[in-house]
Amino acid sequence: MAEPGTIEEAIAAATGEPFRAQSTRPVSGGCINDAFVLEGKDGRRYFVKRNSADKLAMFEAEQAGLREMLEADAIRVPAPLCCGSDDSEAWLVLEYIEFGAANAATSELLGAQLAALHRRTREFFGLDRDNTIGATPQINTPDDDWPRFFATQRLGYQLDLAERNGAPARLIDAGRHLQQELPALFEGYRPAPSLLHGDLWGGNWAADEGGRPVLFDPATYYGDREADLAMTELFGGFDERFYRAYEDAWAVDAGYQTRKTLYNLYHVLNHFNLFGGGYAGQAQRMVAGLAAEIS
Ligand code: ADP
């Protein structure tokens, strides 16, 4: 365990003010890291994520992603303060956000503000660094061709991992075929490189004390905004008002109904690679559905 002193010193250096911890309170709910609220003797509070020292690059990437989202000034995200490591541990220190109850306006704001995030675009898909999706590396090498980017850096990468992790050969073969045919799903549709949260399941947003939506724990990159929307549908946690507000702000192309299966296939394959089990069967059904759309 890192001595809290090391994190205290990092906070002091980043804020330019001495920081002495008074208490730590563990926070549950995270999937990957040990998380806690660190409160200083002066009442300042920070949200800290901690993991083994070799995870520093993961935290640096999360910090960079949060900064990218902050710059878009579209939706509230925790401001990162600093990250660092010692011999045994790495940490990421974020603004502490007190969560509260969602109100009638929260879902609408979430929809409108997510569309505003997606309005922030770049000339290429990807990012200037790789990051992680769950604990899996997520490759973000810039490319100006979205179907090629998704075929290689998203679908292809997870298929390679799945093959190494013992996925059934028929899933891998059908997945590779889909990879080849993937441009067929993009006829007449040219997405912009939009700033994405990248891991937008219901557990990665909450309302702050004022009922405003907050996004956290991103796997940020520039990509087709439909990929974020698709993930909101994969595990639930988003209501009708959210979808209506998003659609009012920026209408979604009709082909989304097919492509959302492609985008969620990435996450289902990632779940197979992280957890195994029934996700291979689910991925197999998704690939078969997409193959039927293409032929
Ligand atoms: P992990 O990377 O381990 O999945 P998360 O970023 O999802 O961790 O954080 C774990 C939990 O901590 C979240 O579910 C949320 O309830 C809470 N949380 C996340 N960010 C903050 C924050 N900035 N301030 C306060 N609580 C937070």
Description:
- With 295 residues, this protein is of the alpha+beta class.
- Helix content is 44%, strand content 18%.
- The strands form four sheets. A five-stranded antiparallel β-sheet has the order 1-2-3-5-4, sandwiched between helices. It has a two-stranded antiparallel ribbon with strand order 6-7.
- Helix 4 (146-164) runs antiparallel to helix 5 (169-181), helix 4 (146-164) packs parallel to helix 8 (256-275) and helix 6 (225-234) crosses helix 8.
- A hairpin with a 5-residue loop joins strand 9 (205-207) and strand 10.
- The protein contains nine helices and eleven strands.
- It is globular, with a radius of gyration of 20 Å.
- The mean pLDDT is 96.
- The protein has helices at residues 4-15, 56-72, 106-118, 146-164, 169-181, 225-234, 240-249, 256-275, 279-294, and strands at residues 21-27, 34-40, 45-52, 80-85, 89-95, 131-133, 136-138, 194-196, 205-207, 213-215, 221-223.
- Bound molecules: adenosine-5'-diphosphate.
- Adenosine-5'-diphosphate binds at residues 27, 29-33, 35, 47, 49, 78, 94-97, 203, 216-217.
- Residues 27, 29-33, 35, 47, 49, 78, 94-97, 203, 216-217 line the site of adenosine-5'-diphosphate.
